[in-house]
Each structure stands twice: as structure tokens, then as C-alpha cells.
Amino acid sequence: MKRNxxxxxxxxxxxxxxxxxxxPQPVQTKAAFIEVKADGQLYGTWxxxxxxxxTIDTAYGKNEIRIxxxxxxxxxxxxxxxxxxxxxxxxxxxxxxxxxxHKLVIEGKAETGTAAVDAVAR
Length: 122
Description:
By secondary structure, the chain is of the alpha+beta class. About 15% of the residues lie in helices and about 35% in strands. It is built from one helix and seven strands. The strands form two sheets. The protein has a four-stranded antiparallel sheet, with no helix packed on it. Strands 3-4-5 form a three-stranded antiparallel sheet, with no helix packed on it. It is elongated, with a radius of gyration of 21 Å. It starts with a helix and ends in a 13-residue tail after the last strand. The relative contact order is 0.18.
């Protein structure tokens, strides 16, 4: 590798790094409620602005969801690995917690009548 090749490589790496750092970050919109689906069917919806504990009891098992501080998270699950309890909190629209053994999907949703923009097309 010659001297000019090394200079060209360094400049390309520098420009690539700058473009990566200057990339705009996506805007996260806070969710207004959660929607719970069990086995593909809507089980219920709960607002995130009222603190409560929700028990989801299906034929596949039992989960407890805690809603507080405008967030939702699983505090108890009787599935074998309890991976769903370690998936974090639902705060933004589109955030989700999935429990595969119980066929349960919990997803953050927008206020009724408003839609989050995924992309802009021209």
C-alpha cells in the first residue's frame, strides 16, 4: 500500500465517521396507551396515564403488567424463561413486549385519531 493510498483511506474513513455522527436521530413519540393481544386476538387496551396493575390470564399462562409513570412493563410471568419480563418498558409508540410461550403481544399505541409517521414519501 502506497502513501497516497493510505491518505485516501484515512480521508474516506474520516468522511464516513462524520456522516455517521451528523445523521439525524429519529423522533420518538410517547405512547398514550398499550394494546394487548393474546393469541392474535385483542385482549384489551389500557391508558398509560393511570397507574395500575393488569393481570392477563389466558389458556397459555398468566402475566402481570404494571403501568406507572407513563410506562408499562411486565412484573411477573409464569413462562419458563421469563424473557418478557426482561424486555424493558413500553414508553414510545411502537415499543413492544412479546411473550412467545403465552402468545402475548403488548404494544405502545398513539392516541385515537392520531398516527405516528413512519416515513415521508415524495
